[in-house]
C-alpha cells in the first residue's frame, strides 16, 4: 500500500460585528475556492506546514487553534498515477495583518459560514467548516494551547559521573530541541516553564532564544523535587491554567503522568471526540511520553473553568 501524500492547511477565522467569518483562497490554476493548504516539505511536521502554507498562500500569519477533521482524497502524483492525499487541518486566527499575495493564490475572501459553504468547490471542504461552526456554537472555538514536553534525549545516566541535574542533551536531543522551535511557534507559545535540570531547560532553550523569552525553572517539575513532594508539579500546572496563556511545561518521564492525569480530568465531556481525547491522554500517561514528544492540549477557559477540548501528540 502506498503512503498517502501528506499535506496540511488551516481554516482561518475571525469575527466581524459579531459574525463568524472564514477565509477562502482562489487558485487560478484550477479556478477553485478552497482552504489554504499544501504538501509537507521533507522532514517537516504537519502543524509547521499548516502555518507555513497558510502564510505562503494568504500572506496571513496565523497561530494554530484546535484541530479540524482530516480530508483524504485521490489525486494524480508526479508520474500521473492515482494516489491518496491526506490533508490535516487546524482552525487558525491571524496573529498580524495580511501582507501582499505572492504565491499561486490570486484572491483571498472572508465570508460568513453560509456564503463560504456555497462558495467552496469541494464537498470534502465543508466537513472542516461544519466542525468549526459546531465548535463556535459550543463556545469552544476560541482556545489556548498548553504544550506538555518531555525533555529530549540526553546523555545516558551510566555515561555521566557528575550531578544528574547537569546531564546534557546528546546530539539527537539537541536536534529535537531545534526542531521544536517551529512547532512551538506554530501555536504561538509565549510562556516557558521547565524543570531546572539541564536536559529540560536545553530542550526549550532554542525556542526561548528564538522568541527572546525567559525559561522559568521550577524545582517541583524536577525528578528530585517531585520525589520530595509530588504535589508541587500539579501546583505548577494549576498556575498555568490560571494564567490561560499559550505555554509550555517541560519535565521528566516520572513527573508527567501526574500532569497528564490532571489534564484528563479537565476533558470536556460534552465535546465531540471527548472519548478520543481522554484516550490520548490516558495512553500518554500509561505508556509515558517519548523523549522529545510535545503533547498539545487545547483548552477553553481558565482556572477552575478550564476544560480540554482537543489533544495532539507530536512525536520526534
Automatic annotation (TrEMBL):
Gene3D superfamilies: Nucleoside Triphosphate Pyrophosphohydrolase (3.90.79.10), Phosphoglycerate mutase-like (3.40.50.1240). CDD domains: NUDIX_Ap6A_hydrolase (cd03673). InterPro entries: His_Pase_superF_clade-1 (IPR013078), His_PPase_superfam (IPR029033), NUDIX_hydrolase-like_dom_sf (IPR015797), NUDIX_hydrolase_dom (IPR000086), Nudix_hydrolase_domain (IPR051325). It holds the Pfam family NUDIX. Keywords: Hydrolase. GO terms for molecular function: bis(5'-nucleosyl)-tetraphosphatase (asymmetrical) activity. SMART domains: PGAM. Residues 3-133 form the Nudix hydrolase domain. GO terms for biological process: AMP biosynthetic process; ATP biosynthetic process. This is NUDIX hydrolase. It comes from Knoellia koreensis.
